[in-house]
Amino acid sequence: MADDPNAADLELVRRIKKGEDEAFREMVDRYHSRVYSLSYGVLRNAEDAEEATQDTFLTLYRKIGTFDESKKFFSWFYRVALNSAYSRARRRKPAVNVSLEDYVPRFGGDEASPQFQAWVDGIEDEVIARDLAERAEGFIAELPDAYRDVIWMVDVEEMRPADVAETLEISLPALKSRLHRARLFVRQRLAEAASAPQPTGSGERRAAS
Amino acid sequence: MNCRKLILEYLGDYEDGSMASAERAALEAHLSHCPPCVVFLNTYRATGRTLRALKPRDIPKNLAEAVVSFVKARCKDKP
Questions:
Q1: Which phi-psi region, left, alpha or beta, contains residue A44 (left: φ > 0; alpha: ψ -120 to 50)?
Q2: Which of A204, A195, A202, A156 is nearest to A179 (CA)?
C-alpha cells in the first residue's frame, strides 16, 4: 500500500488512460463506497445514490483524459461525484439563510428535559437516536448546497477539513466558517427537537416535519 | 472572552485543536464559570455524534460490479 494515496491514485489514472480495464476496476473498488456515501448525502435515497455512483464512474471513464495530473485526484473526482448527484437532485425548496445571528442560543428553558440531557450526554436510547439522526438528515437538506456539502463531508464522512477545502476549491478559513455556521444551524434544530415532548406516534412526527 | 465570542468565533477552532494556547486558556476559564456555555459546547459535540451516525452503513451489495458493468455497457467503443 503506497504511503502517498495520491501517488497510488495517479498510478491507476495513468493505467486507465492506457486502457487497462483492471486499473479501472481497481479505481471502482477503491472509491465506490465513498462516492456512494457522498451521493447519498445529496440524494437521501439508496436507488438514486446508486445511479449517481454509476454516473460518476462513467464520467471518470469518459473524462479521465481531462484530469490534470498536477492536482490531487480525489479532489477532482469528488467534485465529479457531487456534480453527478446534484444533477439528479429534484428541485429543492429554497434553502435557509445561514446567518450566524439566528443561531446564537437562547439559554434557559428548553434544556430541562431528560431526553435533552440524555442526548447531550450521549446516552439517548436507540429509538430517540434514530429519530434525531433522521431529523438531522432533514436539517442538513435545508442548508444551502455549499454548507450542506461541507457539513456532510467533514462531520458525516469525517474527511479532513483540508481535503474538503481542496475538493470544494475554497480556502481552509472559508471552509471552517461555513462548517461552523452549518453546525450551529443543525445544533439549534437538534436541540429543539431533543427538548420537544415525546411524539405520540410516527404519523404525527412525519406530519410535523 | 464572552459567550458570544466563544460561540461565534472560537468554538470551531477550540474543537479542532487549532486554538493558540493563550486563547484556549481564556476560553476554558470562561467555561469554568459559565454553565450555559458548557451546555452549548456539549450540544455542539452531541450534534457531531448525531451527524456521524448519518453515514450510510449499507452500501448496496455488488455495487462495484454494477458500476463496472454499467460503464462497460455504455462504453463499448473505447474513447
A1: left
A2: A156
Residue A135: closest CA among A119, A159, A146, A112: A119
How do the pLDDT tens digits run along chain B, 79 residues long? 889 889 989 999 999 999 999 999 999 999 999 999 999 999 999 999 999 999 998 999 899 999 999 999 998 755 4
Residue with cell string 412525519: A206
Query: Residue A27 has which C-alpha cell?
Result: 479505481
- What whole-number distance in Å separates Cα of residue A100 and Cα of residue A121? 25
At A93, the amino acid letter reads K
Q: Which of A50, A53, A156 sits opposite B55 (nearest CB)?
A: A156
CA-wise closest residue to A146 among A166, A168, A127, A129 = A168
Cell of A63: 473524462
Look at chain B and count its residues. Answer: 79
Q: Integer distance in angstroms from the first to the last C-alpha of chain A?
A: 46
DSSP 3-state of A68: coil
The residue type of A184 is: L
Radius of gyration over every alpha carbon of chain A, rounded to an integer in angstroms: 20
Q: How far apart are CA A182 and CA A187, in angstroms?
A: 8
**Which phi-psi region, left, alpha or beta, contains residue A109 (left: φ > 0; alpha: ψ -120 to 50)?**
left
Q: Does B70 touch chain A (CB under 8 A)?
A: yes
pLDDT digits (tens, 9 = 90+) for A49-105: 999 999 999 999 999 999 999 999 999 999 999 999 999 997 666 777 777 666 665
- Distance CA(A132)–CA(A198), nearest Å, equals 12
For A180-195, how does the pLDDT look when each residue is reduced to its tens digit (9 = 90+)? 999 999 999 999 998 8
Best mutation target among A21, A22, A53 (most B Cβ atoms within 10 Å) is A53
Which residue reads 452549548 in cell numbers? B40
